[in-house]
Structure formats: C-alpha cells, structure tokens
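Appendix B. Extra example for self-study. Work through it before the problem class; the solution is given directly after the inputs so you can check yourself.
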Amino acid sequence: MIYAILDIECLNLDPEKSEIFDIGIMVLDEKWNKKFTLEHKIIIENKKLITENLENNPALKYYDEAIWKKNGVPVDIALNHISVALNTLNDKVVPVGHNVKFDLAHLEYNFKKYNIKNPFYHLTLDSISLALFCGIIEGEAMKRYDLGSVTKKFKAKHGNAHTAMGDVDAVYNLICNLKSKDKSKFMIECTEEEAK
Amino acid sequence: MQTKSDWFEITLIGISFMAINYIMLSYIFALPLGK
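Solution. Structure tokens for the complete assembly:
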C-alpha cells in the first residue's frame, strides 16, 4: 500500500462548473517515508471564472498569471502524467488529505471527462476526522475544522496555506507529528498564546 | 432538491465516514484514544 497526500486548488465548489488550477501530490511508502512529489500548475481555460471567484476564493490570492503562463499545462496533460506516475507503482494508492473527498470529487470528474485512468484507491484517510473527533473525545469540540486548526492543534508546521503544495506539506508535517512516539507533545490543549 | 430525510442520510454517512477515518488514523498512528 502506498499513500498519496494530495491537494488541489480549484475555482469553485462544483466540479462541473469549476476548473482545477493547482495540484500537489506527495507519494509516501507504507512506512510513510517520502518517495516523490508531483506538482502541476494548470492553465485556466475560462478566465471569466477567475474574476467571478476572486473575492470568495482565498486560493486565488496566490494565482499569478505570469507563473501559470510560464509553467502551466492543460489539465488533461497534468492528469495523464499523474495517472501514469501512480499507476506504474502497481500498488494501491490511498489518497490522504484534509477533506480529501472534495479534492477527489474534482479529480474524479476530470479523470472521467478526459477518459484517463483514475489511479486512486477507493479508501481514503482524512485529517478532518481528527478535527471532529479529537475535540469530542477531549470533551471540547474544536471551533473550526480547517487544516490550519488541525495543524495548530497537533503543532505541525503550515506554510503557504491555500497553495496545493503548501497544504500537502502541512499534512505531511502533521503525519510526522502523529508518527512521533511522544504523543504527549501534542495531545494537550493549546495555550491561549499558541491558539492565536 | 434534497429532502429532510436525504440530509439525515447524508449527515449519517458523513459522520460514519469520519468516525471510521478517525479510528483508522488512531490505529495507524497509535493515538491515545479517549485520553
């Protein structure tokens, strides 16, 4: 079994009306050691969607037309590369991420649209469950369920939030902390200072 | 359009999915469940 921490940035919530513009994937072996990463900037076809979603989509703050023009590829090329890279591993690739079903819905829609073989296994590991259940078990629910709240709770480093690779790195750091033997480091309430 | 019972089912599936995920993560990373 292989794990793939994945994150996408897209223009809006509905896969049919949205476009993916950033994909980050980090592939880890069964012992959670890093194998390789895949990162793709995707060219946005419908530029109107950018202006429509600019105000309510925080990920678009990091969208730079010049960078995407230089490094961007069409979505089918990127997905084909991802599919080939992961399918050649000949193993179950378990998607890992924060609210990973959302990212998978967009990826699955596009894999189907371009008739590309979906390389991901149907089981997922989702860090959002930590936000929901750690709070309940500890007797006090977390106020927010976003990745930033979870990384703060488990004291994992989170740079460049709302970029695909930034969020992938944050989930990886979270996993490194979960792997550590001394759980007492993070299974305690944050102080008010840290929560800020 | 989704009815009340649809939302109930969606919520139930969502919570079950999250609970299974939490149990899997707790098992994989040996998290101190219930502490």
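Self-check: The CA atoms of residues 4 and 10 of chain B lie 10 Å apart. If your reasoning did not lead you there, revisit section 3.
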